[in-house]
Amino acid sequence: YDALQLKKLVIFRTPEQSEIPKPGWLVSGPAIREGLRKHVHLICLEMKEVALLYAAREFYLETRAGDFSHVDDNEVRQFLRDRLSGLRDLALGPVLPPGQRGRENVSEEPSP
Q1: CA 42 to CA 11: how far, in whole Å?
Q2: Which of its termini does the chain have fewer beta carbons within 10 Å around, N or C?
C-alpha cells in the first residue's frame, strides 16, 4: 500500500460505537460509504485492543516522566512496537471494500 504512495485516514472505533453510516443517513451516507471504499480505513477494535492502546499510552507517558528510569527510551519504543505490531499491521494494510472489511463496523448500502 505504501509503495503505491496512497494516502488514507485510519479511524479506530471502540466496540460500543454503532455502525456507520446508519441506514437513515440519506444525505451523508453515500459520501461516507464512498470514502470507506477508497480513503477511510475504519477499524473496529475489540475491548482487549482498546485496553492495550490505553495501557501502551500510559506506560509510554510514565517512562517519559521518569517513573521507570532504569528503562532506556529505545527499549520502551521497541517493547511498544512489538506489543502493538498487530494493530500497526492492520492500520498499514490496504483499505478493503465493504464486505471484505472483516472487523470493521460499517453498514452496507441500503436496499432500495
Answers
A1: 5
A2: C
State residue 74's pLDDT score: 92
- Residue 93 burial (CB count, 10 A): 13
pTM, full prediction: 0.72
C-alpha cell at 73: 527510551
Asked whether the beta carbons of 108 and 101 are under 8 A apart, the reply is no
Q: Facing residues of 9 across strands?
A: 40
Q: What are phi and psi of 22, to 5 degrees?
A: -70, 150
Residues 6+ apart with CB under 8 A from 99: 108
pLDDT single digits (tens) 25-60: 999 999 999 888 888 888 889 999 999 999 999 999
Indicate the SS3 state at residue 112.
coil
